């Protein structure tokens, strides 16, 4: 068989529809791989805002609904939207830090977060003429540093979960630490000795094992589950009309740029895996779908969406290239989004169980950032300064939360109180200042030629 025949066969496989049993099995596999990362952002934000379990459960339903819609737009296509490749979508971890910072401002709240999400979606759509040039501002040095910062700034969330959760009366009790350690141990054992699909769902296995331990210990309670309806629909603007705060929108627009660059690398990688190279037109459709999904997310009570890289790894591992497999996953997720009891059960997972998994999830995000940064020349002093100062800026909200309290205006809170936003701005600006002579070198032709060497940018949501 010639190389041309093999390429034609691979391209045809993208549009092939497997038999229904295989279609459902492959689709469910994608759902399982992305499930832990998909529900983590609503759980983190719910804990930061001390939201009731019912509210967190509703946010999870909204998250899943938009995730299903986004997958269908991306994989099936909708006019000028959608890359029409096997791509899984979900809430981006890059948005978590800025949203937690927004949550600390009582004048913003959930309506302000949703308004910022809508603003970011509109901003992404307006960037369409510049998509091919966007990557030049986010070389591996900047993208890797930002992703490393995301992991580092989220790790305290997992650590606090391991102690029993923010504000727990018995924070640090042996029962919480023991459950978290058990979950972490299960994940490590599965990762070490399992292979293939089982290894890919090690986090999910750890969560289930943790729940089995937490239930008899009285940590996992489902009080109120019986009162939840069997089926319920998500309604737009459930928490009131969105509000728009300048700094909140600005912070989320920075997140949007990061996720678009992340998706650029993701799409180039997927195109290479399935044998359908991504040209500029196809890339634009994919990034437009990311932006449209984020706009829809703000209207349906959830947060910025992006492509999930762990599912790209699953496509590469299984060699199942059909985009209708991810379409099937989208329909499965849509079905689950209609089941409030499932979301309530997920929202009731004890913080200690989440803590054991969170340390792995957020640590893997940081490790993914390290992998990307290693693609830059860290022997270069200028590059070292970009990484060092950016990480230092990102740690300010954790190390000294009140550092800017005496001088900064209230409207600057969503930016100054978010380590991710501070670090991202620092990395972008420092790279522009210190590496201006290298800006754009070899970056603009990547999207045009669909070279897969930029694929390392797509690892943000590996957890």
Structure explained in plain terms:
The protein has 463 residues and is mostly helical. The protein has one domain. The protein is built from 21 helices and two strands. The chain has a two-stranded antiparallel sheet with strand order 1-2. Helix 7 runs antiparallel to helix 16. The N terminus and C terminus are likely disordered.
Quick rundown:
The protein is mainly alpha-helical.
Number of domains: 1
H and E string: HHHEHHHHHHHHHEHHHHHHHHH
Question: Order of strands across the widest beta sheet?
Answer: 1-2
- Poorly predicted regions: 1-10, 442-463
Largest sheet properties? 2 strands, antiparallel
Mean pLDDT: 81
DSSP strand tally: 2
| Spatial gap, N to C terminus | 38 Å
Organism: Methylobacterium radiotolerans (strain ATCC 27329 / DSM 1819 / JCM 2831 / NBRC 15690 / NCIMB 10815 / 0-1)
GO cellular component, one term: plasma membrane
Family: Belongs to the nucleobase:cation symporter-2 (NCS2) (TC 2.A.40) family.
Keywords: Cell membrane, Membrane, Plasmid, Transmembrane, Transmembrane helix, Transport
